[in-house]
Amino acid sequence: MSKAWFFFSIIVTFFSVQNVSSEIIECTNLEELTSLVPNGSHLFLEIYNVLLNPKEEVATTAFFDYLKQNLLTDGNDPDQIANKLYPLWVKVQKKSKCEPSDRNLESYLNALANKNVTTLALSHRGPQLAYHTLDCLHDQNIHFSSSSPFDHNHIIEPELATFYEGMLLLHPVCDKGEYLSKFLSLTDVLPQKVVCVDYQLVNLVRISQEMELLNIPFLGIYYRNGNCNFSDYTMQIGNLQLEYIDKILSDETAKILLGKK
Predict the structure, then answer these.
(1) How buried is residue 152: exposed, middle or buried, by Cβ count under 10 Å (0-12/13-18/19+)?
(2) Rounded to whole angstroms, what are the CA distances from 183 to 127, 169, 195, 198, 211?
(3) Residue 216 and residue 177: Cα distance in Å, rounded?
(4) Cβ atoms of 132 and 120 closer than 8 Å
(5) How many CB atoms lie within 10 A of CB 255?
(6) Closest to 60 measured CA to CA, from 221, 242, 217, 209
(7) CB atoms within 10 A of CB 138
(8) Which helix (H) or strand (E) holds 91?
(9) Are the C-beta atoms of residues 68 and 81 closer than 8 Å to each other?
(10) pLDDT tens digits, the chain, 261 residues: what are they?
(11) N or C: which terminus of the chain has fewer CB atoms within 10 Å of its end residue's CB?
């Protein structure tokens, strides 16, 4: 089973004074999780670009990164950007359709459950998308561990962070490291090891720093998903779909319309 180690992994591989290890590695195939994740660990999975991919370009994180950059260039600060984009983000996600990022994803999650791995979500989809996210996951027969650290749903911070049906859902302005630390402190659970899978390296670095402070061994897995690719053409598709957001166009329909222009 192949693993690509970052040339800079040594920079983010370290030991705390208590000899608690932390490392970040890369994978390009979710099947690798079945061998990378140790027995008995707590596994936190991002939903975007790890478990689910949107079927429409306008709903991708890459397209919204493009919109963020435009607002940043226009002089908006991060809070202004969040206030302008998050309501649109929620609207788009509720209208878009999703598909599993890997057709064998269900079997991989079952294999992890057999290793006594507690599997949960740690996602920037945000509390407003809690019900919709659960429906999307269940449509793909994706379920999180029934033996989660919380035996009930819990609002960590109103409108910013909530734990719902095995998912720690954060507003995009929230720091994943900070809020995962808060979550673990609230549960009074000390995991044998925390493993996080994310498509953004910066999130894994921040989580590793927080886990070091909690003296919890940590493995960050940077998942390189082709769905994060972006080009001028996909930008045109997303912009066209945004024009018809009340009745979202499929990528195929958008491509046909673009071809007619």
Answers:
(1) exposed
(2) 15, 11, 15, 18, 12
(3) 13
(4) no
(5) 15
(6) 242
(7) 11
(8) helix 78-95
(9) yes
(10) 444 434 334 334 443 334 468 999 999 999 999 999 999 999 999 999 999 999 999 999 999 999 999 999 999 998 889 889 999 999 999 999 999 999 999 999 999 999 999 999 999 999 999 999 999 999 999 988 765 666 678 899 999 999 999 999 999 999 999 999 999 988 877 899 999 999 999 999 999 999 999 999 999 999 987 566 788 999 999 999 999 988 889 999 999 999 865
(11) C
Q: Which two tokens stand for residue 160?
A: 């910013």
Residue keyed to tokens 């979710």:
30
The token duo for 182 is: 């808060």
Parallel/antiparallel/unpaired status of strands 194-198 and 218-223: parallel
Phi-psi group of 240: left, alpha or beta (phi > 0 → left; psi -120 to 50 → alpha; rest → beta): alpha
CA distance 80 to 77: 5
| CA–CA distance, 57 with 70 (Å, rounded to integer) | 17
